């Protein structure tokens, strides 16, 4: 390894210090150990590798899985087509699939629960479930206790209010909603924990593929709310896990 | 009057029928009585004339008021500058002004209550009050029993829920909200009367001058809701009055 | 029932008042009777259950119908695919279908007419008919006398003017239009009843999927007009019914 | 003059043909007479020079006028500030000013009427007048018989219908409207001449500075309509004149 | 006929004048002859009926054609699917079809040339041809001498300049362009006739389905230009014909 | 208190259980104890009351402060004008003001540090500081250890990299950036804690008042990032505090 | 040739100079040699002809190739469908195809390297490769030494930093990125050469088909960056070549 | 210096190699010499420091200048207010100011011409000059031979064509245009050098603050064009200089 070699040369008086200084400044970053950054996250016990499958061919996905398997880590695939999963299943017997959310899971060892509390995933309507489930399975696979309550949109507010005790038990809440997207605002007025708002593209006409819900959430009067991209269930689940493992 | 003249000429054989037919077809509309259309609305007892003051000079507004006074009807002015009102007041002693909503009122005779029930005006926040008051004073001036409950936005849902009995007594509800604009959706889930949603330009950043609230309201999952233009308190008050006078 | 039990325990001195107070405050909402809210609407004689079919699988829709049938209420389905209807028809012999508007109707008992007057549905062009029919069948199914006049757009104004007597007989008007969407403005200048404007996505180029018609309607100079979402025929029909049943 | 010189040199055998050919190909355009293009328009008897004053300093405008005066042509200034006009008036005694439309006119000789028929300028409301007047004075200054009828918007359709005989006498119609901008569509259904639609920025909220009217006009179902930029009264007046002088 | 009957009754003293006045005011418009308005355009010799085929079923189109045939006028269909044409052709032997522009033509008698000059149709690129051809065939079918020059976009300005003499011969120019849409501006600087600019949806990325070309054309610095909707070749052809038949 | 009274009446057999049940269901929410919800947050030791000063008059703000003072809680004002502060300072001697971020602070007792770790606030440029400071002072006032590093935007990436050890010590990071808004993405690739991205309206042209930065942040490829509204420093600081007090 | 003929006629006194002058001014441009402009680019040794295949039929493309072959130049086709290539390959044996970027290449003689330095093509992610490859193969075919480094997005900044020495060797850099599109900004802070930023439509939700990346790049704080259209790999490659051949 | 100290300790056997390795990996970047990156650009002889003055107070700007003066480099300020310059001038006698473009220049030593060829700056209209001048003075101050030709927009194409020989002499062209923004497309068809297109916010209505010109430029059919942000004259000038100093 280059860096070590330089130090040894200095120690052994093979090179002088000025020359060593100059060399150090011009070393590519990876030689200084920065290349380790990228692998940091996966080094934790049980933390999975993640593959965003959309726009990748079956061959590419299988290739990536094969490479990951060498490290023996768990694997989480998002937006994985059913046909792709069928091919994977033939090779990797322990592969599992969640149809609604298109989540692929390959568990090579047990998931260690590293979350400090409970993550709660809510949806406004039943059509928001695919996005919500992406958050749900992501957070579970990252080692969290996750609960989901679906179809508690604000147009029937009692549905949400009657679950207030469950809301109050959560450490982080993921609130998924399309159309008018007002769910996070109401939840934010009821509890005092971080709320991750996920707009969905559910709706038609002036919802503009989720923009209406996105704007609603960004403009929420309630405090403690932040927003991820439209339909980004994975991002919400990942962030919820990141918050929930804070000591 | 032309039309009468033609008929008299026919009666008196001064002109023949073919000639009369031809003339009738080419008469300007007003001579056929269609010009009455425009005055229909004001013909009802106590119904006011309306002046949209924005973009009109003080002189123009005073001129219009003078002309209207001839008919001795009540006069409602919207978006009237304070300075303009001061000039009006000097001439028309009975002129009144609502500062927040910039409403001008000149009552030349008593307002007859023609509404069948109560109109309720709600706001999400205190900054929505100018728009809400425009709806409130418009509906009142058009002869309605109007009640207002302000600052009952969805981020503190109990504020709204604790007034549910008032909501249920209304015949029409005007729900005014800026920022995320979710108020009408929640109200729509609680009661079963027509709800007129008014988005306001209150907010900043990604509220885009009221577009966020507008989209929220158009995409509401609750039924019985329709929307007027951003900040259009007058339109909401007028429509509420139109609904409330239905027999 | 919990709430009753608490009161009986108080009456029988099984628990003291402080303890009862505490319990009451922590009861889930539904136990306090609030769960009734949601069923309110359907409790009226003849009022239908509504299913928004888009984005639901045939199995899900059949499951919901089965559950609803237990209550023996009428059922209205919107945006129902023809193939779905065919499956439903095999099980529910009394199911009916409107192809243009994709409306599903299952009448388990007669529709009671609860509207106070006539609802009129207008369109600007023939391509707006699917959306207009959604409003038409919705309002009819909710117990209203509904009339429709189609293809009376403003580019041939005489078509509209020659029906002015019909316009004047309506208690509520639903005006459906795509492209430039000017129909509601003209109608609003002719009559003095509530007008529900429905923009449609009909058109091409700079109509932006209905945005042009939506903006036209929101900016109407005529009074008494409010707007629902693009292509939201159901919402317009439902709101028309809500207004028309006002006593 | 260069071109002539080359030809003379060829004629006089001072240069050979190949050399002349090469030179001709490399001459700047103006030397070939193309520089005349730009002055074409002004060469007609009475046709004015035009100055778009917005964004130009008083000094610049005065400089341009001075230069133009040399050609002794009439001068039309658009979007000219009142203060600028006051300075111009001191120097050019025959300068005139239209306050509403901010039109500056310097007539150095009589305007010759070159239009073949009458141009009609309409507005939907009174706030559209500044833009309409810009079209009106432009077309007049370009030598046309122009008539204006203002405040005949579609929300009071009888106002327009009662002038139908005037509409039918026009050779070109300029229809100016803000807010919902539906005027050109209705006019287009009544007459069969070219209609130039001018959206204005008049309105508030979801009119987005004139975009609502612009989209309405672009999406008109009526035939024979085309659109210019928001508030572009000059462009409409100029185009109307261009059409009206067609033989 | 009602109107005649009333006049006869007046003449014969069967009814008095007040009663007649009242009746006249309440007659439906068509009885006063206004229903003729709509048929005005087709009454001219050879002027075709027009069917906008998009969004209409084959059955609907065939039905409309059958009805039109009774009047024995020529028929122009726009955006007609090839399959639809094939069905039409089986019934109407004289039906013709232009594949690129999807124009249907049924000539029941000769087209009389009513245009006063030549209409010129230009495109920026070859992909704009379908829209340009829609304008071309529309204008021809409406009785005009039309010429087309395609692929003369501004990125190779000499292609346009070398045809300047042809440009100068036209009475009206239709300039069709996608992508940056600058063609009308350059043409507008070269000639002094009305230019109808047609933005097309040709392009990708930030062309936003034709919005880039639309905005370019609306903001043109050249005078004498107006714009129709994106891809609206028919509208441009129709307007060109309307201008070209001005006497 | 009503609820207690009902229970006592039940106990004393003054009213029967059915009557009591009916009454309970119709009690306003606050009587059932739900009115406490709103005050929950402030009940914690040292947690401040918050006033959003924008759009409120000096009188209104002073009125609110006076009312809050009764509870003796600390007070945080956001977007407070300098002139308003000057008036407040005259009455409340302990009022403090941060000019850049327009933060008003009235400390009536010591702030108790309730955050579990350190919050780090970063900005891309110096112009983002007002927004960042709003986050900084909010989080501090809510009882947190907060550090700020400003002007470490991605166009000079070494500025950020050289502080990596500080980044790694933070428990929550607030990343504030205008223009291209790429800062959170880069930070998200370096550390594994929750990142709250705040787009600012800093920039010009195609930044569209902060939309460019907003979209960048919503589309970040890095995990663990969520976004608040444009310029919403308060929201970011509040959310950071909410996360940081999680046990 | 006309021009020569005129000169000869002048020389031979067949026509007088005034007549010649007049004729010259009215000659079509091409006769003056301007028609050469268009062929300039291809006249260089080895410079290819370019066909944009999208929206052209196989027949059209084959026709164009046949015509180009006459000039014996190399041919580059962009956005060429695989099926089209298969047909071409049958006729032109030396045709080659790059599947990812859909680039067609027909080399009729060797490519001469005319670039002065190295062009470097970078991508943020693997999904950006098709666009990046379009730039890569375009620049190579235009005679450049091109290197590509893919998947070095800013969310894992060390991947980019560790290649800094390669970045510093490039004369021009093409930086291709979708989603948040921050790559060019970071690269712009590291090196001091022209950077051509290419936004891609890769992503979902609020990326709006590449608009998010486009805005990021336009708003970059780094200097030396300019932007081409979304997904316009060809344009970037062509511009890189244009810069790289500067002497 | 830390790094040197570590190496000396290694050399002197004060620390062992493993310990040194660990320390090196955790050193802040600047200690490794990366902090030099930022100053690279200014190290070249005569290259100026740049201050973006917008949004900075006079005090801040004076402070920055004072600090920069220590390095004795030239200083370029952009978007500098006249009032700010007046204060600077009092302290720095050699300060110069360009009023139209708001450029501040402090020349502490001569500008060395490092450009290899000529940079040409063009504008479409006279209102684009402030932006164009920003590019012009920036490029000059960075050591380039720059020429400007203003008001050669495409609506009068001969103005541009007659300068073709000047266009062909440029090594880089900056084309500045507002309104329809078509200038770069036409220039791109005439010459074969890199063209930097600068959209300006000049115009009104549907130019949307420069968006129309921006889209036109992004969608240009001509090759060799790239675009910078709206009104970003500095960016264009800087990029032109970056290209022009390529050897």
Could you explain how this protein is built, in words?
- Chains A, B, C, D, E, F, G, H: Residues 117-246 form the PurE domain.
- Chains A, B, C, D, E, F, G, H: InterPro entries: P2CMN_synthase_LarB, PurE_dom.
- Chains A, B, C, D, E, F, G, H: This is Nickel pincer cofactor biosynthesis protein LarB.
- Chains A, B, C, D, E, F, G, H: It comes from Romboutsia sedimentorum.
- 8 copies of one chain form a homooctamer.
- The longest helix of chain A has 13 residues, at 129-141.
- The first copy, chain A, is built from 11 helices and 9 strands.
- The first copy, chain A, is globular, with a radius of gyration of 23 Å.
- The model of chain A is unreliable at 28-46 (pLDDT under 50).
- Helix content of chain A is 40%, strand content 17%.
- Chain A has 2 domains: 32-106, no CATH class; 118-244, Rossmann fold (3-Layer(aba) Sandwich), CATH 3.40.50.1970.
- With 247 residues, chain A is α/β, with parallel strands linked by helices.
- Chain A has helices spanning 2-11, 17-26, 40-43, 58-69, 82-91, 129-141, 157-161, 164-169, 183-190, 211-218, 233-244, and strands spanning 49-52, 75-78, 95-98, 103-106, 118-123, 145-149, 172-177, 195-199, 225-227.
- In chain A, helix 9 links the parallel strand 7 and strand 8.
- In chain A, the strands form 2 sheets. A 5-stranded parallel beta sheet of chain A has the order 6-5-7-8-9, with helices on both faces. The first copy, chain A, has a 4-stranded mixed beta sheet with strand order 1-2-4-3, with helices on both faces.
- Chains A and B meet through helix 9 and helix 10 of A and helix 9 and helix 10 of B.
